[in-house]
Amino acid sequence: MDGGSRGADRHGRRLRHLALVLLVAPLLLLTGAGSASAHAALKGTDPADGGVLKTAPEAVTLTFTESVGLLDNSIRVFDPENRRVHTGKQEHADGRSDTARVTLPDLKQGTYIVAWRVVSADSHPVSGALTFSVGKRSATTAALPDDEVQDAASTALYNTARYIAYGGLALLLGATAFAMVTGVAAPRGLVVGGWWMLLAATLALLLLRGPYERGSGPAAAFDLTVLRETATSRPGLALLVRVALLAVAAPVAARAGVLRAPADGRGTAGSGRLRFAIVSLLSLALALTWAVAEHASAGIQVPLAMTSTVLHLLAMAVWLGGLTALVTVVQRTPGELPAPAVARFSRLAFAAVAVLAATGAYQSWRGLGSLDALTSTPYGRLLVAKLAGVALLLTAAACSRRFTARLAVPAAEVPAAPPERVPETVGAASGNADAAHVRDADAAHVRDAARVQDASHAGGVQGVRDAVDVRTDTDTDPRDPPAGPAPGDGARAPHLQALRRSVLAEISLGLVVLALTTLLTGTQPGRAAEEAAASTAAAEPPLGSATVIPFDVGTPGGHGKVQIELTPGRVGENGVQALIFGPDGGIATVPELRLTFTLEGRDVGPLDARLTNRGGYWATDTLNLPLPGRWTMRATVRTSDIDQVTVSKTVRIG
User: Which end of the chain is less crowded, N or C, counting CB atoms within 10 A of the terminal residue's CB?
Assistant: First the structure.
């Protein structure tokens, strides 16, 4: 083995090692990521979270910001002794897909916990819990579950499978597009490998879908009941359709070597158009299996969002998969990469980048909602990281395009070495004849260069071959030197190496951006997070008010302050809690505390709150304030049998 072969082998090993690192690094990023937030968010509940009801409710109803799917145990109710309440059938309230409801039996007095878990319309699970009380609040042994109950192993495996699915789609479609557009055979391993990657990842997603939705361990993936429910859900159906499409695409992937443009270009136009149509339809259908089950399928402007998502996925696949095919061809057979083929792929990559930029800008606007969400939501912060990666990716793409433009210059335009000088010993007649022949040959070379240049612009690879054929048939001369390396081959080598390095940088950055995109698809968009926060704020009752009133009965140590909390501080029934603080700032006890409310100008009051001593503080749950306005709150504090004082302050009742 010579030195050049050994150097090529070493370079190939370095490329394989680099590819392994670039594949594993984004997987580690996905594995270390926290649990995903879903698109849907709880908008309101009936009964209200934390509410105290005079009579037992007949049902629990949850309202969300978008459509949700119900699992087998989407709503669970626990009594004060942490026993599961036997509820009725769970369903969508009044047929509305953005609600979930379950009927209740006759509940006894006490505090109850409701744990819920549903699947958002964009295929991600969301869960939470709330409490309500019948009659009055009570102690409970039931534990309030975490709002984001996820199994770390199932979530990590599911995210990893999604990332591999994106990579398989890029290899399958990108390498195929490279072959069909450039006329250069795509490496068979890329197309077939991409097909197998996508198939394996899709089957893994189908198995892991149930555990991911339910927050259970990976072992539940083989539960037949869970698999049956997954297969009938919208995300499960999309995955099954993807498997069927891959089965149809298998013959195309198996014959990856014939996808390139035919060498003669004759008699195959019809079959080429048919093959292009089949590949295009299969590509669109595969991209749709993502769009119908993720963020594009929920929220605003769904038809436009799904169209944008399909175009974004296809452009990503053409760019990253095509770049992988290009660097593989350049590495294996750099001399067989015609300049027109490089130019055609450069135009294709530029179009893919333009589509990515346009669709990415729209999806960012749709997902964010406002600029504040860039820093205030996890989605916005991930989007900032992705945009930074895209900026670096575009810089690397600009470098690749520059080197591609240099490679696209036909070899005939590269200055050749000057002709060998004729020895002076040659006779005059012979010298004149040779000189005339040289002039004729130079003129022929000029004509050849013009033919090659015109052919490269007009007919691509076949045009170059035709032009060379014309030169061979009409302008041969027995005195021409033997054929050797084409002029300019040495000048192309540095450009090929530079192109290889810049394309590798593009691929590495593209894999990181792809990992960030995978995380974004599992994160609640900023627009949805802001809508959920606004809905929750509108649905929740006011938090009430806390008022501190100083008092002094005029005796040594007879001063302090009374702190009064009024909840919720609006018309209707309110709760009151009052604490007395002594001169040293600590909680003090007094014989009596009386509290009244008067609405001056409306001749309402004084209304006695009827506070009772509850062992260290004074309280009531039955204060009824019938009208809104500014009420005068008067507190009478008695510190001994003969010492008392009345102080007052104004509070606003909504």
Answer: N
Let me know: does 543 contact 519? Beta carbons within 8 Å. no
Phi first, then psi: what are they for 38, rounded to 5°?
-90, 170
Contact indicator for 435, 428 with CB cutoff of 8 Å: no
> Are the C-beta atoms of residues 31 and 156 closer than 8 Å to each other?
yes
Q: Which residue has the tokens 């964010």?
A: 368
With bands split at pLDDT 50, 70 and 90, how would you rate the model's confidence at 271?
Answer: low
In which residue are the tokens 């105290």 written?
52
Using H for helix, E for strand and C for coil, what is the string for 35-72?
Answer: CCCCCCCEEEEECCCCEEECCCCCEEEEEECCCEEEEE
Strand 125-134 and strand 110-120: pairing? antiparallel
- Quote the longest CA-to-CA distance of the chain: 145
Of the CA atoms within 13 Å of residue 185, those in its CB half-sphere come to: 12
Residues 525, 528, 529, 530, CA torsion sign: positive
CB-based contacts of 599: which residues, under 8 Å, 6+ apart?
605, 627, 629, 630, 631, 632
635 membership: H or E segment, kind and range: strand 629-638
Identify the three-state secondary structure at position 456.
Answer: helix
DSSP state of 2: -
What tokens were used for 512?
């990181």
d(CA 467, CA 501): 33
Q: What is the DSSP letter of 478?
A: T
pLDDT for 598-645, tens place per residue?
888 777 878 888 888 887 788 888 888 888 888 888 888 888 878 888
User: What pTM was estimated for this model as a whole?
Assistant: 0.59
Picking from 500, 568, 465, the residue whose alpha carbon sits closest to that of residue 332 is: 500
Spell out the SS3 assignment of 381-444: HHHHHHHHHHHHHHHHHHHHHHHHHHHCCCHHHCCCCCCCCCCCCCCHHHHHHHHHHHHHHHHH
Contact 396/510 with Cβ under 8 angstroms?
no
Structure token digits, residue 438: 């040289």
HEC sequence for 221-266? HHCHHHHHHHHCCHHHHHHHHHHHHHHHHHHHHHCHHHCCCCCCCC
pLDDT tens string 430-479: 344 444 444 444 444 444 444 434 443 343 334 333 433 433 344 444 44
Q: Locate 647 and state its tokens.
A: 């102080």
Tokens 């699915």 correspond to: 165
Q: Which residue has 């009386």 as its token pair?
A: 594
